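Hi all, a correction to my earlier message: I attached the wrong file for Chaperonin 10-like protein. Here's the right sequence:
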Amino acid sequence: MKDTIVSKGPKVRIVDSPIPEPGPEQVVIKVVVSGSNPKDWKIPEWLNKELNTGDDIAGIVHSVGDKVWEFKPGDRVASFHEMMSGGGSYAEYAVGWQHSTFHIPKNVSFEDAATIPLAAMTSAIGLYIRLGLPQPWTPATTQIPLVVYGGASAVGAFAIKLAVLSNIHPIIAVAGRGQSYVETLIDRSKGDTIIDYQKGDDAVVQGIKDALKGEKLEYAFDAVSEHNSYLNIVKVLESKGKITLVLPGKKYEGIPESVTQSITSVGDTHKSASNFAYVYFRYMAKGLGEGWFKPHPAEVVPGGLEGIEKALDNLKNGKASAVKYVFKIGDTPGVKSSL
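and the right structure:
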């Protein structure tokens, strides 16, 4: 099969690899569409490693392990691939674990499904495990102000969508070029608003204060975690408040010791949060099918696997806003479409 190796740069080369075999609780998926994430260029850069960094799978089940009971060959599925392991999504075939795989509803495209796995689960872990906020099936009954910094990013946007399902308001979304998209997610009648970070740090801090209208800010989801984002937040956050951040291996100087800070790692899906992920992926699939949970806007990059390098370069250079780059594997020269 055609496989992809991403190295520092980002540089991408397409190689031939054997089709993977599933472990007992794994599924091998013929990839129709792969999503992408900023970590896909960052990991080779940070760790100086070469690997298939794709983790968002949407496709058709090819084979299943002997302990897999929920899926069978031919099923339309999406899956969050275990990061840093073999069988990534930038290939003709990829590997997913049963618990982090879900059925794609009939009314949902592979392109839309590919926007869900990594980003939406990051948001769920951040909101409900790290910040401990009310879950959608036991929604908030009183006002809970929440700052979502980076509201147009996939992680930020999914955090807003889930917060709305949990009746968490007012949502104070900090965004830039993607404000028009964020506007479609919030409910201004419940006090939600958008702060434009392009106006500078002082304007962001004042904007958050104004949006609170005297309420205390106790929760913040920082989906950016750089460029002073968390420093702006803690100027408004209560001294005993909670902030969750998304970039690992970084010292977040300037956050008061009294503030509870945490790192939201979607890698917990394949570690301590496996049961949580199992439930939430199926909840999201239900929402996709019934129309009350929406995917992130997807942009199909031409060329299939050959388009990955350009897309990762765009991510590195901050060119993506309110969009998830996805790749149709069948568009790769020399690869036969699975549809």
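Sorry for the mix-up. The chain has a mean pLDDT of 97.
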